[in-house]
Design goal:
The structure is a homodimer.
Chain A (H helix, E strand, L loop, with lengths): L11 H15 L7 E2 L1 H8 L3 H14 L2 E4 L3 E4 L4 H25 L2 H19 L3 H19 L2 H13 L1 H4 L8 H17 L3 H29 L1
Antiparallel strand pairs in A: 1-3, 2-3
Chain A binds a DNA duplex through helix 3.
DNA sequence: GTCGACGAAATTGATAACAAAATTGCTTGC
DNA sequence: GCAAGCAATTTTGTTATCAATTTCGTCGAC
């Protein structure tokens, strides 16, 4: 009951926000695409007012930009900004992993280990998309284990801005193998309940992540 | 021109959000106070729709809570949550101070030194409210110097949630003196352009801040 | 006197209509 | 053929209205 909250039908406003956020994150709405209120309202089956507030919320989240009298567009995250986001994410992930190490229960540890197992299996069968997805779940799981709501919320909004870069790093040569080892080290440290070691392991992992993103950006620029 | 943006009259929606945010932060609206849409609309001189979207934005910022069919209230930040917020803030401040040390220009350094001077003068004349205000400016200045927009934005929303605790720690015995020394150390490290040293200095400072907040919370609980 | 049911008032949620601004396309003049 | 200006369309911004829900007060039963 602590977190459940007997499901009183959510207002459509919330639905509209989630619909749009998901649409942007999943790529249904492309960067710079105009988001016309009435179109989206019809798409969701709600009214303009709700779409309007949803767009205002998403603007604050950094997913859309609006100009007065000119409506909203999907915001394009620049390369420089992507780096900033990873840096901010890193700062918070370090915090989170410390708490995860301190607060993990036996069940938490088991679930974390299971996720590592799944990552390994995805890696072994060379299914890098599945690896990337499970990777995301691993980090999410860490956030949950940390029981640090504030950090979790901030990381959530940061992550949704990163989709454009998220999964591509994993295709870099050798990255997946390194990533797997890094995650294992994090898992071991959390299992040992050692915050300092967990932070060190996470720090090593994040260095790898940043390098990966930088390479993705560099190669994308080379393409053009 | 990079950041200026020829001031096209802001939509009332934005005004409403700022008005409410400021009202909550400055204490015009108290924790748990109901925020009735039409009242606020009349107060600002706008319509309900704008207030509605403003409230939705502020909910995402964590400043208000809304229940379906029951409107919005000013959110009361619990003690436990206050600690979380300081922790998250800390993680980001450490990031920021590193970048500040790396990116500070001579002018930046001068402005930082001037702020330290003002803090010292406020301390000497025992004007702790002014000290606290300048303290806030110092941290804001660091964020600006860091030129790390992402971290800056996140810190902005975290700070607005902390007002209830912000200034009270400074009245603890000895805290002001320690705080001043800590800030000077940070300033010196930034002036030296040494990110590691700056981070260490900031870390020491933040430990002091967290202890201060914890004491404020403890003594507030003792009061009741 | 207390508790619950009922009803009125207040407030939120949803929809429609209107006004203002921007965009588009067309016409006209050169 | 091209550009400037004008008109039509599209889209946003604002306001009004109505329905649904909650809240509050009153009345009555026990």
């Amino acid at each position: 009951m602590a977190t459940a909250e007997t499901k009183t039908k959510q207002p459509e406003r919330v639905d509209a926000t989630n619909f749009l956020r998901e649409g942007i994150v999943k790529g249904r709405f492309l960067p710079n695409e105009r988001l016309i209120e009435i179109e989206i309202a019809r798409l969701i089956g709600t009214n303009r007012a709700n779409v309007r507030t949803a767009l205002a919320c998403l603007e604050q989240e950094g997913l859309v930009v609006t100009e007065p009298n000119r409506g909203a567009r999907v915001r394009l995250i620049s390369d420089a900004e992507a780096i900033e986001i990873v840096q901010a994410r890193s700062a918070l992930e370090l915090l989170v992993v410390r708490f995860a190490a301190m607060r993990a229960t036996p069940e938490d540890r088991a679930e974390l280990a299971a996720l590592i197992g799944e990552m390994k299996s995805a890696y072994d069968s060379n299914d890098l998309m599945r690896y990337s997805a499970t990777n995301g779940l691993f980090h999410k799981k860490l956030q949950k284990i940390s029981r640090h709501e504030t950090a979790r919320k901030l990381l959530g909004t940061l992550r949704s801005q990163m989709v454009r870069f998220q999964y591509r790093a994993i295709f870099l040569p050798n990255r997946a193998a390194k990533s797997l080892a890094e995650h294992e080290a994090i898992m071991k440290a959390v299992e040992a309940g050692d915050p300092d070691r967990a932070e060190r392991a996470m720090r090593r992992h994040l260095i790898g992540v940043i390098e990966g993103i930088e390479q993705v950006i560099a190669s994308a620029q080379a393409e053009v």
